[in-house]
Amino acid sequence: MSWKKIVIASVLFDFSALTAYAVYQVGYVGFFEELGSSIVGLTVGADLFIALGLALTWMVRDAREHEISPGPYVLLTLALGSVGPLAYLLRRPEEATSSVAVPEVQLARAS
């Protein structure tokens, strides 16, 4: 297992524990009630919605490209937030994480 996967696993474990503790303290519905109780909570909720939407879009495309079913990770994301993308990154093939496609840009020469 690479050091990247170890870091992702550590973040996933710690974030899952924090999420479980928050849900234990206020309940699943209470979690969203707390989020909507102030303008700061609404702003954080909107930011989370946008960020997870972007993560879901990337994750579904990437999973299909690597012939992985995105379904379980989408459900995890919808139910538990960042747990879904983190779990997907652990599942993603090792060679896929090291190869990032960078588009080539050719500049036109001024003559």
Secondary-structure map:
Elements: H1 3-26, H2 28-35, H3 39-65, H4 71-80, H5 83-91, H6 94-98
Entry summary:
The protein has one domain (3-94). 75% of the residues lie in helices and 0% in strands.
Description of the molecule:
There is one protein chain. This protein has 111 residues and is an all-alpha fold. It has one domain (3-94). 75% of the residues lie in helices and 0% in strands. The protein contains 6 helices and no strands. The chain has helices at residues 3-26, 28-35, 39-65, 71-80, 83-91, 94-98. The longest helix is centred in the middle third of the chain and has 27 residues, at 39-65. The chain starts with a helix and ends in a 13-residue tail after the last helix.
The stretches of 5 or more residues where confidence is low (pLDDT under 50) are none
What class, by secondary structure content?
A: mainly alpha
Q: Could you give the count of β-strands?
A: 0
What shape does the CA trace take?
Answer: globular
